[in-house]
Design a protein that fits this description.
Elements (H helix, E strand, L loop, with lengths): L7 E6 L1 H18 L5 E7 L3 H8 L7 E8 L12 E4 L9 E9 L3 H11 L5 E9 L14 E5 L5 E2 L15 E4 L1 H4 L1
Parallel strand pairs: 2-3, 2-5, 5-6, 6-7
Antiparallel strand pairs: 1-9, 3-4, 8-9
Helix pairs in contact: 1-2
The structure holds inosinic acid (IMP) and magnesium ion.
Amino acid sequence: MANIHEDVERILVTEDELREINRRLGAQITEDFKGKKLFIVGILKGSIYFMTDLTRNIDLPLEIDFLGVSSYGSSTRSSGQVRILKDLDKSIEGYDVLLIEDILDTGRTLSYVSEMLMNRKANSISICTLLDKPERRAPDVNIVPKYVGCDVPNEFVVGYGLDYDQKYRNLPYIGVLKRAIYE
Ligand code: IMP
Ligand code: MG
């Protein structure tokens, strides 16, 4: 594993496409949250690359914080179990919260997190995910992301924050990982 690019089977979302997604979503969010108390919550660690680029495209006063959750371990399938590893530093009561996620898969993580934040009396909770795997949504999960970068097929993807076994987050694009790496 000397060169991380060699472990990628093919590129799904290029750096240019990521820039375009950040511009488009940033402009949309700027419109939608005018005059609101915007609080951006990134789900660690997968969302950090997306969140830093996206927020630089939002032309509004806003605050940011992170939620550390664990749902995956080092396998490629969701356990459905969500644990809070790092909580928010302050109360979000009265804020319009925008949750930033790297990828929406079964939806269990965000379903748990949005319910938890709603109970803290946020004024509103919206979801912004870079990638969506709509085919993978669990039947009992009722999550509709307001902002989606792009849909991806049901394959294991890495890069731009997304990991396999904590690695590949620093790839500057989104790629499909070679099966040989995790099989
Ligand atoms: P969910 O709770 O099943 O929606 O899982 C969402 C989380 O699973 C994401 O935040 C990712 O950390 C992880 N995940 C799901 N699919 C992938 C993938 O293809 N590559 C990397 N991580 C993934
Ligand atoms: Mg994640």
